[in-house]
Amino acid sequence: MRLILMHATLVRKANKQVPLDAHDNYRANLTGGGPVQALSTADKEEFKSVRVVLTDMDETLTHGGRLAAATYGALEALQADGVRVIPVTAAPAGWCDQMARMWPIDGVIGENGGLFFRRGEDGQGVVRQFWHDDLGRMESTMRLQAIVSRIQKAIPEATVADDQAFRMTSIAFFIPRNAETRERIVAALRNEGADVAINNLWILGWLGGYDKLSMTRRVLAGYYGVDIDDASGRDAVLYSGDSVNDAPMFGFFRHTVGVSTVVHYLDQIAVHPRWITAGPGGSGFVEASAAVMRSRADRSR
Q1: How confident is the model over 149-164, as pLDDT tens digits?
Q2: Is 30 helix (H, G, I), strand (E, B) or coil?
Q3: Cβ neighbours of residue 271 under 8 Å, at least 6 residues apart?
Q4: Percent of the residues in the chain that have a pLDDT greater than 90, as a whole number
Q5: Taking a C-beta distance cutoff of 8 angstroms, is the pair 269, 258 a contact?
Q6: How far apart are the two ends of the chain, measured CA to CA in Å?
Q7: Residue pair 129/107 in contact by the 8 Å Cβ criterion
Q8: Which 8-state DSSP code applies to residue 18?
Q9: Closest-CA residue to 295 (of 248, 235, 247)
């Protein structure tokens, strides 16, 4: 209860800090009941079935690359309320290892679906699961290394992300300012047979045909007994995100929330999130977590 009350205080503080910006006119038009609606208009029982919160990390939990105390508190409050919390991110294995060990979460799906890390049963170590088996992962790593070499030779402007050393199942390039260079990198990856996604930080490439959704399906069924291909299982999940590589999740789940900066990408997302927050990044996630907990509180009365 103490965590939940603390969370309510953090929600109020986070909302006070949301600045007026260029998104305000867009947000003002969301209250009319269109395909994307302001989260503030959701019925208080809208999320009463939710028992798993999946969330992107970069610029969904963070904002400007930083994780705010209010956002961390929201993760902790959700867990204290009995909600499973699993970030689903393109971030590298090294980041995911730290998150799985220390954050108030139930595990983390990383590198756009290439891996799942969770805290060990003893609360100390990390249990690691990969999309590929050991041999497949070794072969994929060798192929990806060769792909990087060929792309950098053909496109000298292609710069590997500075966190590449911490990746185990994917390759990442910084997004170049020049649109033509960006398109050349994407085309080169696809010509090599790689899967490709672009988020707000990287151009990502991997091998295996999986994505955030396919690894989510495997993890929730295998570890938590949630079958998202069943209507009740799908209805038990809320997903929050902010970018193009969240599109498979926005298109699949009923309970979907985009933080305010998702407006930059809506023209590239076939199925929009159902709800949009007032705040960007972590402050938007705080709004989403508060909505879930409010619905669950009403259900328990």
Answers
A1: 999 999 999 999 999 9
A2: helix
A3: 247, 250, 251
A4: 80
A5: no
A6: 15
A7: no
A8: P
A9: 235
